Amino acid sequence: MSTLYYQRATVVASDTILWLGACALISAAMAHAHTQSTVPSAASSRALARFGVGMALLSPCLLILDHVHFQYNGMLLGVLLASVATAMNGQHLLAAFLFTCLLWLKHIYLVIAPLFFVYLLRHYCFEGDGDRDGPSTRRTPAPARRGDAKVRHDQKIAEEEEEEEG
């Protein structure tokens, strides 16, 4: 009987990861909403984030089944929410690491892996030449070391300014 109590206690304790992931997602959605140019979209983004996280945290299936069958799905959902939140904050390597850990924990999340791969391919491996609001028509591979690209760009601008002056 003590083993049963121990297992239930570990499932309940692992739900703190779900709460942490949900809080991270709410804060990332709030930060993303503040970058929006219109107030109605910011308010709707915050409301949608709160609604979605509330639905995840108060899901009867998660509360009843996870605490009876000891599957730790709440913890896994928390890791998924944390990886999405870090991706929204622009921390793509940390998001990839968290998602990889999620795949190590349960293979069912392989269904989401192609979407996560395409997101990382677009946002981390390629950078656009257009504005941040719309898609760019031309994509260039991101340099391995961004500092070198910045130095080359500054040198090119300095050379163009010298040519204009001379």
Topology:
Layout: H1 2-34, H2 39-57, H3 60-69, H4 73-88, H5 92-105, H6 113-125, E1 126-128, E2 139-141, H7 146-165
Helix pairs in contact: 1-2, 1-4, 4-5, 5-6
Query: What distance separates the N and C termini?
Result: 87 Å
The average pLDDT value, as a whole number, equals 77
DSSP helix count? 7
Largest sheet: 2 strands, antiparallel
SSE order, one letter for each helix or strand? HHHHHHEEH
Which term fits the overall shape? elongated
Uncertain parts:
129-138
The Rg value, from CA coordinates, equals: 22 Å
Strand order of the largest sheet: 1-2
How many strands appear in the DSSP assignment? Answer: 2
State the helical fraction. Answer: over 70%
Number of domains: 1
| Class per helix and strand makeup | mainly alpha
Q: How much strand?
A: under 5%
Can you characterise this structure?
By secondary structure, this protein is mainly alpha-helical. The chain has one domain (about 1-165). The protein has seven helices and two strands; from the N terminus they run ααααααββα. The protein has a two-stranded antiparallel ribbon with strand order 1-2. Helix 1 packs parallel to helix 4, helix 4 runs antiparallel to helix 5 and helix 5 packs antiparallel against helix 6 (about 115-125). About 20% of the residues are buried. Residues about 130-140 have low confidence and may be disordered.
